[in-house]
Amino acid sequence: MTTKTVSLKIDEHEITAQEGKSILETAIENGIDIPHLCFLAGLTKTGACRLCIVELKGQAKLFASCSTPISDGMEVITNSEKLKAYRKNTIQLLLSERTHVCSVCVANKNCELQALADKLGVEHVAFEREWTSENVDSSHPFLVIDRNRCILCTRCVRVCDEIEGVHALDLKLRGKDSQIIVDFDDSWDKAASCTSCRKCAKVCPVGAIYVEGEPLSETKDTGIADFVLSRRKK
Amino acid sequence: MALLYFIYKNRSVPYSVVQRKALFKAENRRDSEMLKEDNRKVMLEKTIKEHQYQASSLLEILHKTQELYGYINKDLLSFVAESLKLPPSHVYGVAAFYNYFRLKQPGEHVVTTCLGTACYVKGAEEIISAVEKEFKVQRGNTTADGRLSVFITRCIGACAMAPSIVVDDEVIGKATKEIIIERIKLLLEGKKP
Q1: Of the residues A41, A57, A79, which one is the last residue of a structural domain?
Q2: What is the ipTM for the molecules in this complex?
Q3: Prior bond to B163 cis, omega within 30?
Q4: How remote is the C-alpha of A76 from its chain's centroid?
C-alpha cells in the first residue's frame, strides 16, 4: 500500500507529510507548537476547546487544527497576533465558566489549563465568573470527580469509550450546563460499568478527576491512550 | 386454661364481609394497574423489536417510552439501554440532552413556558415568575402535592403568538399572567376550561 504524501507550509517550515493527518498532528511531529487542550494522541478529535485554531492563507475563517486534515499546497499560520488574542479570550472564557481557583486545586502546577494560561499570558479574567457549586463525588474507593473544575474537554469520556471500551462516562445536558456523568448519573460507587481503570484520571488536563491521596504528578499519564492503541491487536 | 385463652385471643380472625370486599377491590385495582403497566411494557418491547434492536433507533424508542409513560425514569432508561445493548451513560446522556424528555415524573397538570427570544421579549419571564409565585413552585419542578409542574422550553415555533405558553398540551398564544393563572386555577379545581 502506498500512502500519498502532501507538502504544505506551517509558518515558515516546508513540510512533507502523509495524507490524512490533521494539521495539529503534523505540527507536533515536526516540533511546531500549537496550543491545544482537548486533543490527545490516540483519541478521536472533537474540536471542543478551540485553542488549536490556525489561520489558513486565502481563507477568511479560522480552523481548529486538530480536526482539519492537511492538503497539498496548504499554508498554515499558527501564531499571528489575531490568533494570540483569540486564544487568550478562549482561556479566559474557560476559566470564567466554572470555579477555577488554582491555589486550592489538586492540579496546581500539574494543570494543562494553568500552564497554557501562563504561557499565553493570561493574567486576569475579563469576564464575569460563574462560581459553580456542584457536589464533589468521592463515593468511589479512590477516584474523585469535582465537576466544578471540569472544562468539558471530554478526554475522560473518549478514553473510557475508545481505550478502556466501557463507556461508563458521558455528558449530560448541553452547553455550559453540561456535566460528566457516570452511568445513569449515579454516584460513582453505584456505577456498574466502571472498571476503576483510572484512565480518566490519567488524561484529565485539569484537576476534575483525580485519585484520592495521590499527587497528580504521579497519576498523570497523557500518553496512555496512544500507548494502548498503538499496541492493540489490529 | 390460660393457654386456651391465649390461643383464642391470637386466633386468625376471618375478615368481615366489608373488609373482604375492600381487600378484593384493592387487589383488583392493583391487578388492573399492573396489567396496564404490562401493556405499556409490551408496547415498548414491540417498538424496540420493530426497530430490530438497532442502537441507532435510540431516539425513536425514547420518544415512544415518553409517549407511553409520560416520563422516562431510571428503570425505563435502564430497560432501553439493556434492550439496545447501549452503555447506560450514553442513553442517559441522550435523554438529558433533549429538553423534550422528562426524567422525573411530572405533576398532574403541566405548564410549559416558552422562553425563546420572541416570547422572552414579549414578557414570558414575567408570566412564569407570576405563576411560580402564585402556586409556590420553582421552574423545572413540581408542587409538593404533585398537582402542578412548571417547565421552561426554548421556542415552540409559535413566535407570531408570543408569548406562548403550553398548558396541558394546549398552546395559549398572546398570553398574560391573568389568563394563565386563571386557567391553571380552573384546571386544579378540576373544571374543564
Answers
A1: A79
A2: 0.84
A3: yes
A4: 22
Write down the pLDDT at residue B14.
Answer: 45
Task: Give how far B88 is from chain A: nearest CA, Å.
Answer: 5
The answer to whether residues A185 and A116 belong to one domain is: yes
Per-residue pLDDT tens digits for A129-173: 888 888 889 999 999 999 999 999 999 999 999 999 899 999 998
Contact A130, A16 (CB under 8 A): no
Domain final residue, candidates A63, A79, A95: A79
Residues of B in Cβ contact (< 8 Å) with A182: 89
Q: Give the β-pairing of A75-77 and A53-56.
A: antiparallel
Give pTM, 2 decimals. 0.75
Nearest chain A Cα to B89, which residue?
A183
Residue B9: all three cell numbers together? 385471643
What does CATH list as the number for B109-188?
A: 3.40.30.10
Tally the domains of chain A.
Answer: 2
In this complex, do B90 and A167 lie within 8 Å of one another by their Cβ atoms? yes
**What range does the domain containing A218 cover?**
85-230
CA distances (Å), origin B147, targets A67, A87, B144: 49, 50, 8
Q: How far apart are CA B120 and CA B142, in angstroms?
A: 22
Residue B32 makes CB contacts below 8 A (sequence gap 6+) with none
Distance from CA of B97 to the nearest CA of A (A): 4
Which residue of B lies nearest to A165 if distances are taken between CA atoms?
Answer: B87
Specify the fold of B17-97: Arc Repressor Mutant, subunit A (1.10.10)
Domain ranges within chain B, ordered by starting residue: 17-97, 109-188
